């Protein structure tokens, strides 16, 4: 199976095959898609072709620095407060191998109520030294949760296994699900997954 790091890579290939003339606006859109899907080129799904495509985009836009900052650095006041709240409740489980962030419904409402502005809070766990797997749980309504799962390379931990078990989806390094029930069930599933992957 051919590895593609981002949907935008497929879009770029299609544009080339259709002989569509690119411009700065299209280049921005393709760059944004690749940059977000690869975690600003930090994820293990990045390939040589990823960089080759971006290099070609520079023919239409000679500086992507401003766009990169807008995508990955600039946050609204509510986003920054939400980040602070998430960092303050970060827990480490399983001898430091699992990061666990739970944002309850009241906290999300306190900072605007938009769960979509917190999509990259999963990085708080993954940016913590020693953590192999991170779970970010957002309580959408009381008792119902949206859960993002991340795993760190080079560890061979497929978080999509858990997501798919509960009707979610994703891939090996990033997956998600919606869950209603006792969060200890998810916590124990993560501990078992890590143990099965690392301790075998």
UniProtKB/TrEMBL annotation:
GO MF term set: nucleic acid binding
Top-level taxon of the source organism: Bacteria
Annotated ranges, domain DHHA1: 116-194
InterPro entries: DHH_sf (IPR038763), DHHA1_dom (IPR003156), Oligoribo/pAp-PDE_c-di-AMP_PDE (IPR051319)
Pfam families membership: DHHA1 (PF02272)
Protein name: DHHA1 domain protein
């Amino acid at each position: 199976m051919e590895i593609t790091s981002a949907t935008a890579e497929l879009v770029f290939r299609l544009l080339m095959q259709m002989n569509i003339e690119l411009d700065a606006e299209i280049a921005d859109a393709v760059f944004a898609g690749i940059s977000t899907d690869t975690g600003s080129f930090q994820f293990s799904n990045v390939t040589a072709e990823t960089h080759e495509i971006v290099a070609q985009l520079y023919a239409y836009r000679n500086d992507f620095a401003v766009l990169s900052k807008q995508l990955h650095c600039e946050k609204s006041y509510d986003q920054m407060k939400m980040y602070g709240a998430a960092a303050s409740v970060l827990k480490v489980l399983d001898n430091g191998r699992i990061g666990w962030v739970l944002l309850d419904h009241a906290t999300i409402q306190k900072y605007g109520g938009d769960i979509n502005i917190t999509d990259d809070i999963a990085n708080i766990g993954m940016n913590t030294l020693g953590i192999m797997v991170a779970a970010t749980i957002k309580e959408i309504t009381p008792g119902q949760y949206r859960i993002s799962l991340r795993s760190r390379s080079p560890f061979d931990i497929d978080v999509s296994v858990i997501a798919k078990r509960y009707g979610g989806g994703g891939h090996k390094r990033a997956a998600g699900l919606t869950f209603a029930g006792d969060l200890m069930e998810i916590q124990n599933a993560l501990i078992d997954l890590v143990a099965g992957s690392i301790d075998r």
